[in-house]
Known about the structure:
There is one protein chain. The chain starts with a helix and ends with a strand. The chain is globular, with a radius of gyration of 21 Å. It folds into 2 domains: 1-35; 37-173. It is of the alpha+beta class. It has helices spanning 2-35, 100-103; strands at residues 38-48, 66-75, 86-92, 108-112, 126-129, 136-139, 145-147, 164-167, 172-173. Strands 1, 2, 3, 4, 7, 8 and 9 form a 7-stranded mixed beta sheet that branches.
Amino acid sequence: MRAETMTKNLAIRVLLIMPLLLTGWGFRQEQQSQAKEFVAEGSIVAIQKRTRHPVKPEPGGIGTFVELWIVRIDQWPSGMNRNEKYILVQYDLYERGLSDAEVNSKKLRFTLRERREDEHTDCLGTITEGNKPPYKRRPVGLSDYERTEPGKLDEIPPLESLPCLIADRPPVVAQ
Length: 175
């Protein structure tokens, strides 16, 4: 009898404490990502072909669809000590895919952030080749990207030398 009471008390405590812990963890994660966000202006110069989603795909599981871009930054925020002209961006499709007109816009405003510790992406990934097992994996190269209108003539540095930033929201066309 006493063991049953202790088990019930423990179960009640877990049920009361768990939501508080999860809420606190989620709030901390949200604060972490918001604190590192900044806005930069530029244009998408290339998109990794296999990741293009003009329309947000219907989720078929627990994963998040992404697009992988090469972005030319024309203006970093004032006071920010960054001088990279080209960056890799992983756009997490939480809201929507970008139209072709947006992708080919000459001036976009990007809301970007650094990767969090729990995000294990290099904004490149690998390419799986082959029609049947055993599949082969190879590193992504510039030939795996499709150039956009603004990026047709750009000389893009080696992909491995570019920093990786995250976009959780779609860029906004700037006038």
